[in-house]
Specification:
The complex is a heterodimer. Chain A is of the alpha+beta class. Chain A is built from 13 helices and seven strands. Helices cover about 40% and strands about 15% of the residues of chain A. A four-stranded antiparallel sheet of chain A has the order 4-5-6-7. The relative contact order of chain A is 0.13. Chain B has a three-stranded antiparallel sheet with strand order 1-2-3. Classes of the chains: A alpha+beta, B alpha+beta.
Chain lengths: ~350, ~140
Amino acid sequence: MAYVAVSGGEEAIEESIALLKYYRSGSKKDLELETIQNKMALLVDKVMSEAGLYSKEYAALALKQCEGSTEEAVFLLRAYRSTLKRTYYTNIVNTKDMRIIRRISAAFKDIQGGQILGATYDYTHRLIDFDLEHEDAAALYEESEKKLAEETPEKVHFCNRVSDGLKEEGLIDTFEENNEAPFDVTENLLEFPSPRSARLQTLTRADTGFISGLAYSVLRGFGQVHPTVGELRTGYVELEIPYLLDNEESIYIGEILITEVEAFNQADDKDQLKLACGYGAVYGRNENKAIAMAVIDRELDHGGDYPTQSDEFVLMHGDCLEMNGFISHLKLPHYVTFQSKLDAVRKTRRKDNE
Amino acid sequence: MEKKRLFKILSKAETEKVAEFAGSIKNSCHIVIVKEPEKSLSMVKMREPVKESLFYIGEVIICEAIVEVDGVKGVAVSMEDNFEKVLNMAIIDAACNKGIFDQYAALEQLEKEQLCETEKENAMFMKTKVDFHSMSAEG
């Protein structure tokens, strides 16, 4: 069976692409990038995380271009990213130095620095607010600016991690700093078993739905882990790179918003005197993804026969671009291969009838 | 001033403000653009607390420019793609390296304002800190 090249359909394809504009033209009102960035911030965060590229402006632009499709936006960002060279690696970011905007623990009521709810939908009623149909956006903005201006400045304090105390008590294993250069999945093909750095990078870029579903399967019994969220923190971390003209100095290049989770679990059967940790960290405010990542991280450490305990199963099937690309290819012409299948069925039917 | 501090103030500043700082240098010095502002990527390297190992969380878009002010080099790198701003930042850096930058007081004032804004925002977050009350036992 060989593939046969066919041509035709160029005009139809051109018209089809033009029709996308028609779909985006349903209103005379423009969807400004600033609006997408600020009012669809969680969607922008999700796209940046799955693209592995932090750029609110470009994520907003990509979403505008593709009618809000996450997978198309991720595709656009990944494609654009591939046209740029990588000129720097940041100095090591340590989330102990995070300017926290939300921090909670499901393990301890009293944590050093306190539980800071930040902005969360957790306690909202989930009733549609019909007032927003005719919201005065300018008034809302001004009201928020006024509120901010009237605040009394409060110094930013960095917080130790909740796990630090458990480590001091010997309830969680401690490790020496490991400065081995991380594996980079954007430049190297994954091999199994994969190094921890490859696992974490793949999980943080993974499709949110995929790893949330996997983590849910673990909690329902298709795995070993039912963790307690030891700490969930969201906040800003500063990025620095070495100063080109003097390696003794670093320069600040900006800050990024990330969500980080440490989930506590019972250690394996042999060592029930200790707790084990799973880790998740993602771009933006996307806490369910960070929690799911922490669940899967621990599940992969634990190992076993469930799909979520298989490095290859988890890491090879969760990339937004790869999974959607592969599923999408099923729409493309398979005339020859399908004809072959059809022939085989017809032949079998003929044989059966003889 | 430490480079880290200088770049933090400039990165957080509005484009127009950075242009103001660079304005007098542009008027009085010979500027050569060694490297035009250009977009590229920086990979973000993180330490995870569970095994204390390193991993890459993702990339950020950055913009870089290199200039010479009267023969002394200056470099600037900043997140996102603001070419005008990064070029002016490089000019200010070169002026600092040459020892002719004379607006440190204004920079420090701007830094105070930036810090105040951050702390006001922080105050809003701190208002959501939970104050637990123990429920008294019945009976």
